[in-house]
Amino acid sequence: MPGLLENKLALILGIANKWSLAYAIAQAYSREGARLVLTYLGEHQREAVESMAKELNVERIAPCDVTKEQELSGLSDTLRSIGRPLDSVVHSLAFANREDLNRGFIETPREGFLLAQEVSAYSLVAVARAAARAMTAGGSITTLTYLGSTRVVPNYNVMGVAKAALEASVRYLASELGPSGIRVNAISAGPVKTASARAVKDFSSILEVVAKRAPLRHNTEPAEVGDAAVFLASHLSRGVTGNVLFVDSGMQMMGL
Length: 256
Ligand code: 1JT
Known about the structure:
Elements: E1 9-13, H1 21-31, E2 35-40, H2 43-53, E3 58-63, H3 69-81, E4 88-91, H4 110-132, E5 139-145, H5 157-177, E6 182-189, H6 203-213, H7 222-233, E7 244-247
Parallel strand pairs: 1-2, 1-4, 2-3, 4-5, 5-6, 6-7
The site of ligand 1JT has 15 residues, from loops.
């Protein structure tokens, strides 16, 4: 049976290691027949991404620090040099200082607030601009968000505000890119124990609460996020844009 992403070219940003949601998405896209362009952050992550690339359908790997305009324009040139249209983009990256997730939100310093916004929200706009030049046949852009954008989740703090900006950016980008046939959506994943989550104190107890209270009674698995991302990149979601798709065992709609 042909895959859902057969012959599609996809750019995936945010693979740091095997626990990254971006890695689970890359596995699912590979399984469905997509060719991948993977980015890495700095030389130390290059080797990790290179070794993971062996098990995936990788076309190219490229450096990309989203805070550097030069690396984004280099990425844009790389994409165009491949010589066929880019079909999808996965933006699966965020950053905040660890201290800013482990103390009162009111204590957030200006620089920590701006850093979280730059890396976690503005980067979607910058990446969309760099990638859209290569998306000449339409396509789909998907980012990753979390419930802390619209609800107060203890300690998520500055990241919640950045995710709110990210989700609003999804809507503005979807509105502007829709006429070019480019859809823009977010997946709101339930908490997953990734390297980022390790920065959060008591993360294990958060996971326990979710597994006990979520309608589906289990924690979100990376493969569930990967499969939802396949849907959003595929023809099956052709009528869906500007949306936030919850892949969270149903936790989002619970009152108490
Ligand atoms: C970052 C970190 C972004 C952790 C993140 C994140 N998006 C989701 N998580 C995991 C998480 C964190 C908390 C939470 C639920 C999930 C770490 C720093 C880099 C950016 O609270 C229930 C706090």
